[in-house]
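Re-running the complex after MR caught last week's input typo. The corrected sequence lines follow. Everything else is unchanged.
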Amino acid sequence: MKFRITPIDGGVCAVDGIYASGVNAGFKQDGYDLGFIRSDKELDVAYLFTTNKFQAAPIKYVLNRGIKTTNFILANSKNANAMTGDEGIKDIEEILEFLSQKISIKNPIMSSTGVIGVRLDKEKIKKGIEKFDFNEKNSNKFAKAIMTTDSFEKEIAFEVEGDFGKFRIGGVAKGAGMINPAMATMLCFITTDANIPQNEMQEILKEVNEVTFNAISVDGDTSTNDSVFLMTTRDGGYEREAFKEALKQVMQKLALDIVKDGEGATKAVAFVVTGAKSKEEAKIVAKNLTTSLLVKTALFGEDPNWGRIASTVGASNVECDEKRLKIAFENIVVYDRGNIIFDEETERKAHEIMKRREFKIYVDLGIGEGAFTGYGCDLSYDYVKINAEYRT
Amino acid sequence: MKFRITPIDGGVCAVDGIYASGVNAGFKQDGYDLGFIRSDKELDVAYLFTTNKFQAAPIKYVLNRGIKTTNFILANSKNANAMTGDEGIKDIEEILEFLSQKISIKNPIMSSTGVIGVRLDKEKIKKGIEKFDFNEKNSNKFAKAIMTTDSFEKEIAFEVEGDFGKFRIGGVAKGAGMINPAMATMLCFITTDANIPQNEMQEILKEVNEVTFNAISVDGDTSTNDSVFLMTTRDGGYEREAFKEALKQVMQKLALDIVKDGEGATKAVAFVVTGAKSKEEAKIVAKNLTTSLLVKTALFGEDPNWGRIASTVGASNVECDEKRLKIAFENIVVYDRGNIIFDEETERKAHEIMKRREFKIYVDLGIGEGAFTGYGCDLSYDYVKINAEYRT
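Corrected-run output:
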């Protein structure tokens, strides 16, 4: 691979021709809650949506129309427009009709996140639209506008150079709770000028999603609104491997930001599962480790209670054998294929590792070649606080 | 059905010929931590064990020997004897050999609960055995001896009378965390004198278990040690329906006690799922509702956030349709087949219901005839506290 990936500023606006911004439409007490990403030209768009059967109205709207190109994305936080039935879709139509009186739009897309089961306040959104400066190029304002319980905005951009010339790629995401490998209340918007063929967009997006957003979990709940959008102006160069790698770096950065910002999380932990019978079985184990309440509370307590990890593996209904299993906290092996290596010294070292903000736990099943790395966080008092008090 | 079920005292010792007690063997600072249930005659025994692939040593010991009758159960708390390999089984053999020098035992069974991945302290257990008064009939001491994070002992007994004569049945259980529909760190011991045929014991136990212990969840984790034992002296009467009903009442009482005693739980909630395509799909939905962190924290916050319930149904990968779904908190319908019925008055009423210690949430999918009721609890700060600090 002869290409170089360099981080640059600008988020989604790092790509020429992309405008973005955010305003306060009155959903949040202060701070941005309504934003847009747009371009003057039509952009090819690929997308992935939640596997939740109750897909929110904005997702149904896009799927019903089979949108393939767009020049405008409108996004709001605080209301998911989910479980709102046909009225939810009509609300989107009315809002986008209003928007079309302000600026020329083609196949506009709306994207929402927030509380489920409440109709959108269209008037607030219209008033917010009135405030838009369509010529702003401020990715950060957009990133802020889509935040719900997020504590920081999630943005990244790269410039990629190689024999093929160069392209740029930028992304913005939100998500802090209701996050699960099946893509859950996270929204992600990626712009690029890579000249990627339309038929490869969807394929590459799906492939990269599997090892990035589908590898993270905050709480095991899969939302009604998860969406990842990839849009291109096609003005730059393109080479498949370079693009795939850059897209992976963008999505991995944003996915890990979501884990680090997990509601109440104090730690981000990578569960590196190897030696499973298949990749699928490795993924099941990794997912169960990231969602087990007993594992998550042990992480919070910085307790190297490897028995809970072993028990979670055993409960995963995958092929496993306690005489082949191996568990390590970073380089500290605590259980080695039937042998408990957990003297005071080992425990102390494992405990030290768990005090870190980020670390890896290795679980080798010793059965086959299947491998998958899942990313999770701990479960703290604050998770309970945030979610017990969210709506009221 | 012509029979009468009357609650009586005595727990497992309500049955004639059953002895039980508990002592402090030094695992707990104070309080009982080692106990026995025994009889002079051999008892037919049926059992169900965890689906966790890493079954603990005591379970492997019973399965390896294919035990069908026994006259002695030895149980300890604070150490699960799990992930301890062949040594874990040898430890059991040595302990039971020691026990056989104190009292005549036939096919003794050991049962353990506690921390995973630590060898049993055989000397402590032997010293505990030395303290046993084998002629005690004190079910309550045994119930205390198997408690881990439990805050109260779980016991029940009934006398059943009918045309067939009469029999008694008594049970003891433990469990407060790591509880999941697939039977998780819960131990349950049931004695009876019902003259149940050996071939019906296993069948009825399994059937009743499906709607009792397999219907509860505290945290979604399935332990290495879950066990339910049913033992009979065969000295009493028997009638299949009467026995099944009495067994169900015993197991349901103990299962609900476990939910009520869920680690840090402030509420016990029944999720009554109906109208699913099949019983299996109803069970999946009920299980997901009892394990969803967002639902559990909403219960703790007494927040009638029905959107989280809907989202969990949609994420369950079962046949469902938002235009057919109906959700109610007891008799307060909040979402009715496409219509959001959630004005201030409805919200206030639903909130009032959620303040109760116990209540029901009804979820009708409106698709088919499948029904299942799952029992769960809320997720509180104390759950995190108990589990973050458990081992250290």
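None of the earlier attempt is carried over here. Chain A touches chain B through 68 residues (CB under 8 Å). Chain A has two domains: 3-260, 268-388.
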